[in-house]
Design goal:
heterodimer, A: alpha+beta, Uridine Diphospho-n-acetylenolpyruvylglucosamine Reductase, domain 2, Uridine Diphospho-n-acetylenolpyruvylglucosamine Reductase, domain 3, Enolase-like, domain 1, 3 domains, four-stranded antiparallel sheet, 12 helices, globular, B: alpha+beta, Ubiquitin-like (UB roll), DNA polymerase, domain 1, 5 helices, 5 strands, 33% helix, 17% strand
């Protein structure tokens, strides 16, 4: 239960961190909050030769509005900062609703948004939320930068589209239009545990309460966050009476792999139950939003 | 690999310490073995049990998920620094004593460091908030009820006479 030896380097600037990663490649890992990386190092499941500590890079810890239509979150922003920012509940209610489900207070005090997304645990809440919100992620390297759509970012369990020399530095989430409502729900064995299954939903309705847009993604339902928006689109052009149809479409669309505590059939059952409740809640909120 | 050594200066419970540490040394082990502050307990060593919780610049964190080398220039409070004086307990410690909030005591330092910070953040908590704040600390003896009672009592006492 002690990490293997490694070389520790505290990054002095983003450019320094990126140059180090370019130099050391696969041998090196960025150390952000460390709430996923350090446990795996303590178990020696991960034995990086070099740790590049990016915690000194305070510019990576930031929240800003981009042209009024998106929220940009710096990779080193800790969950704690989001929990304590009053504007999050207003601009990103989906995140505000999900935060209490993410681990425990001590973990949220240290864990970072960028670390979570780069770790890409398919049972984790944030990846599903970023997919549901159609966010985009900024990858920087010594070679330059690019933006990656959330739908392309998560490629497998603990696997992302990041190249070996790239760092996720920001995530940008579009602010939802008027008459939108969102909902996050999950079922876990205990509060703070990884979800057996969870769902993030965003719905937009017109003045008559007819659904014009729906986005939905599951956590814990596959090898990556599972985008079930296409199935839920049964709801578009219809009102809440169509939620049962949308729920059934979501149930049929997924192919959950099951895990130690929930077999695939149970996960499919949970997907139906959670989709029904979350879509109903999001539509109700959209009518008042 | 040669030992990767780093010099660090860290403040713990108001005292400044200068040490040379290997990069892989966990903060929990640094506190216990280097500084001989064994009040911080080590349970699971992978961030689940909460026994090793300390306050980093006032914020509760798992010391088993931090490296000592990261603490250069930081300020840490451990359970040894919680009581206001050598002959006086923190209000929460007194309440834990009065309510039998511990049996074996292994989880207690982590619970004290978590919940004392919580009470500063949330001076008038209800039972649900206390249980939520306590959710990252495992206790296998008490069933938590007496800890919850102690935290609520401490909150009431702090309201009467803030420390």
């Amino acid at each position: 239960m002690k990490p293997a030896p490694f070389k520790y380097i505290a990054a002095e600037s983003l450019a320094h961190a990126l140059a180090l990663k370019a130099e050391h490649g696969d041998e090196a890992r960025f150390l952000a909050g460390g709430q996923s990386l350090v446990p795996t190092m303590n178990f020696r499941l991960a034995q990086p030769a070099v740790l590049i500590d990016i915690n000194p890079l305070e510019t990576l810890s930031s929240l800003s509005r981009v042209n009024g239509h998106a929220l940009r979150i710096g990779a080193l922003t800790r969950y704690r900062m989001l929990e304590r920012d009053a504007s999050i509940a207003e601009t990103m209610p989906l995140i505000a609703e999900a935060l209490p489900h993410i681990a425990h207070p001590q973990i949220r005090n240290r864990g970072t948004i960028g670390g979570n997304l780069s770790h890409a645990d398919p049972a984790s809440e944030l990846p599903a939320i970023v997919v549901a919100l159609e966010g985009r992620l900024r990858a920087q390297s010594a070679r330059g930068e690019r933006w990656i759509a959330a739908s392309d970012f998560f490629q497998g369990p603990l696997t992302t589209a990041l190249a070996v020399d790239e760092m996720l530095t920001d995530v940008e989430l579009p602010v939802q239009p008027v008459r939108s409502g969102s909902c996050f729900m999950e079922v876990a064995r205990r509060k703070g545990d990884f979800a057996l299954l969870g769902i993030a939903v965003v719905v937009t309705v017109d003045e008559e309460g007819v659904c014009t847009r729906v986005r939905a993604a599951l956590c814990g339902g596959g090898e990556t966050p599972v985008d079930v928006s296409e199935a839920a689109a049964v709801l578009i052009g219809r009102k809440e009476t169509a939620i049962a149809d949308a729920t059934e479409a979501v149930r049929q669309a997924i192919d959950p792999s099951g895990n130690m505590h929930a077999d695939p059939e149970y996960q499919r059952h949970l997907a139906g139950v959670l989709a029904k409740r979350a879509l109903a809640t999001a539509m109700e909120r959209a009518r008042h939003g | 690999m040669d030992e990767d050594l780093h010099d660090l200066v860290v403040t713990v419970n108001g005292n400044s310490y200068a040490r040379r540490v290997e990069s892989r040394l966990l903060l929990s082990d640094f506190l216990r073995h280097e500084l001989r502050l064994a009040g911080t307990h080590v349970g699971c060593e992978h961030g689940v049990c909460g026994a090793c919780t300390v306050q980093l610049d006032g914020v509760p964190v798992r010391s088993c998920l931090l490296f000592a080398v990261q603490m250069n220039g930081k300020s840490i409070t451990t359970v040894e620094g919680l009581a206001p004086a050598a002959d006086r307990l923190h209000v929460l410690q007194e309440a834990m004593h009065a309510h039998h909030g511990l049996q074996c005591g292994y989880c207690t330092p982590g619970i004290l460091m978590t919940m004392s910070a919580f009470l500063e953040d949330c001076p008038d908590p209800d039972e649900e908030q206390v249980r939520e704040a306590l959710s990252g600390n495992l206790c296998r003896c008490t069933g938590y009820q007496h800890i919850v009672d102690a935290v609520l009592t401490a909150a009431a006492r702090l309201k009467e006479t803030p420390v």
